[in-house]
Design a protein that fits this description.
30% of the residues lie in helices and 24% in strands. It has 430 residues and is of the alpha/beta class. A hairpin with a 3-residue loop joins strand 1 and strand 2. The protein starts with 37 loop residues before the first strand and ends in a 5-residue tail after the last helix. Bound molecules: zinc ion (ZN).
Length: 430
C-alpha cells in the first residue's frame, strides 16, 4: 500500500508515545507496600464466555498450579514464607456468575493457598504475568463457561443470518481495552477503557438509527478481549466495517493533542512515533496474558487481492471518519496514519483505529469524559460511515432486487476480479 495515495497520510509531527497499555487499572488496597511479599488485590471480571480472576502481588512469587484443566476446584499454592495480604484484600469472595462460584485466600507462615470453586462444566487456564512498567506481578485464571464456544458460534451465525435476511450493512465497533487492561489513564483517574466504551455506544446508537445499517459492539461491558479475537468476532458475523475506538496518551505529562485515524500498514509505521503507538496498543494482549501469535500463514493470490482491497477501502474509511471529526474544531486533526495494529489485520473488511483525543491532556480529557462530546463524536463518526458508504458506492437500505450490483464487501469475499479493479480506479469506486 502506497502511503498517501490521496495525499493525506501524514507522519506524526512530534514525538509521542501512547501509554494505553501500561496505565494502572486497579483499585487496590491502600497503604504502604509491606516489606514482606503480599497479595495486594483480588479482582474479577465477567465476560459472556468467560470470567477472569486476577491476583496481584507486591513481588514476584513462585506458584504451583495446573496450566489448564477442568473440574469444580482449582488450587494455587504459593510457597513463599511470610506471604501476607494487604489490608482490604478479601479472604473470601462470592462471585456466583455461572463460571466462578467463589474464591478463598488463606495465608499461613509457609505461604498461601488460593482456591477457586468453579461452576459445573467449566474449563480453566492459569498463568502468571510479570511485573511491568506500572503493573504488579499477577496470577491470572481464565474460566470458560460450559458450552461457551458453541453458544458464541451460534450467536455470531445468527447475526450473520439476520444480516443476510435484512440486507443491512453490518458495522462492528470495537471499544478499545477492557477488564484488567484499562488502557491509558487520564487526570482524575479517567480510564481509556471507559471512554472507548461510551463513544462506541454512542456511535452504535447513531448508526442503528439509519436505514440499512446495523451496528454491534465487540464488547458492551467491562471485560478483556484479545486483539485478534476482536476482529475474528466481526469476521464470523460477516461484518462490512470494523472501527476500533481508542484514546491517545503522551509520555510527557499533559502534552499531546488532537485526533488521528489509523489503518493498517504492512511495511511499518508512518514514523517511529506511530510505530511506538502500535507497539503499545498491541501490548494489550500481553497485559491480558495472551501469548504472542505468529502471523497467519495464509499466502496466495486471493488473500493478497483481498488484503489490498481491504487496505484501499480502509484508507477511504479513515479519511471520511477524520473529515467528519475534524469538522468539530474542538480537537485538532493530526491526520490519517498507518501502523501495524494487530486489531486491524482482517482482510475481510475495511478496518480503522480512531485515536479520539489525548486522555493525558487536561483540556482533552475534559472533553473525552463529557457525555455531550462523546455523543458528538458518535454523530460525527456515524456521518463519516455514511459518507464512506456513499463514496464506496454502497447503497444503504437498498432495494431487495437480486440484481443489485456487487458491493465492496461482496467483492472482497468472493470476486477477486472486481477487487483488483477497485485498486486500479480508487477505493470502492466500482
Ligand atoms: Zn488504546
Amino acid at each position: 500500500m502506497r502511503n498517501g495515495r490521496r495525499g493525506k497520510v501524514l507522519g506524526a509531527a512530534i514525538a509521542l508515545a501512547c501509554l494505553c497499555a501500561f496505565a494502572p487499572c486497579v483499585a487496590r488496597a491502600d497503604g504502604p507496600a509491606p516489606a514482606e511479599p503480599a497479595i495486594s488485590a483480588v479482582r474479577n471480571w465477567s465476560a459472556p464466555s468467560n470470567t477472569r480472576v486476577v491476583f496481584d502481588f507486591t513481588r514476584t512469587v513462585d506458584a504451583v498450579m495446573p496450566d489448564s484443566g477442568s473440574g469444580r476446584q482449582l488450587v494455587v499454592r504459593i510457597p513463599a514464607s511470610g506471604l501476607v495480604t494487604t489490608p482490604g484484600v478479601p479472604r473470601f469472595l462470592a462471585v456466583g456468575d455461572s463460571a466462578v462460584d467463589s474464591i478463598a485466600v488463606v495465608t499461613e507462615p509457609s505461604g498461601a493457598t488460593l482456591t477457586l470453586w468453579l461452576a459445573a462444566g467449566t474449563s480453566f487456564r492459569a498463568f502468571s504475568l510479570p511485573a511491568s512498567e506500572d503493573k504488579p506481578f499477577r496470577i491470572v485464571v481464565d474460566v470458560t463457561r460450559a458450552g461457551a464456544q458453541d453458544a458464541e458460534n451460534r450467536r455470531l451465525a445468527s447475526i450473520a443470518a439476520a444480516k443476510r435476511r435484512d440486507r443491512v450493512r453490518l458495522v462492528y465497533i470495537d471499544a478499545g481495552h477492557g477488564g484488567d487492561d484499562s488502557g491509558a489513564r487520564g487526570p482524575g483517574g479517567v480510564l481509556e477503557k471507559n471512554v472507548t466504551l461510551a463513544v462506541a455506544r454512542e456511535l452504535a446508537g447513531q448508526l442503528n438509527k439509519l436505514p440499512g445499517v446495523r451496528a454491534l459492539l465487540t464488547r458492551d461491558s467491562d471485560f478483556f478481549i484479545p486483539l485478534r479475537q476482536r476482529y475474528k468476532i466481526a469476521e464470523q458475523a460477516r461484518a462490512d466495517l470494523f472501527i476500533s475506538i481508542h484514546c491517545n496518551s503522551s509520555r510527557r505529562r499533559g502534552s499531546g493533542s488532537g485526533t488521528e485515524v489509523y489503518f493498517l500498514s504492512l511495511k511499518g509505521a508512518s514514523d517511529a512515533a506511530d510505530r511506538d503507538l502500535a507497539d503499545i496498543e498491541n501490548a494489550a494482549d500481553l497485559v491480558g496474558g495472551v501469548p504472542p501469535q505468529a502471523e497467519d500463514d495464509v499466502v496466495g493470490v486471493l488473500y493478497n487481492v483481498r488484503r489490498n482491497s481491504a487496505l484501499e477501502r480502509s484508507q477511504l474509511l479513515a479519511e471520511e471518519l477524520l473529515d467528519h471529526i475534524a469538522a468539530d474544531r474542538r480537537v485538532e486533526s493530526r491526520g490519517i496514519k498507518q501502523a501495524g495494529f494487530a486489531v486491524l489485520k482482517s482482510v475481510e473488511f475495511p478496518s480503522v483505529l480512531v485515536e479520539t483525543a489525548f486522555i493525558n491532556n487536561p483540556r482533552e480529557v475534559k472533553l473525552l469524559k463529557d457525555p455531550e462530546f462523546q455523543a458528538a463524536l458518535g454523530r460525527q463518526l456515524a456521518a463519516g460511515v455514511v459518507s464512506y458508504f456513499t463514496k464506496a458506492g454502497v447503497q444503504l437500505g437498498a432495494p431487495s432486487a437480486p440484481s443489485a450490483p456487487a458491493t465492496p464487501s461482496d467483492s472482497s469475499r468472493g470476486a477477486a476480479g472486481s477487487a483488483v479493479g477497485a485498486r486500479a480506479t480508487g477505493a470502492g469506486s466500482h
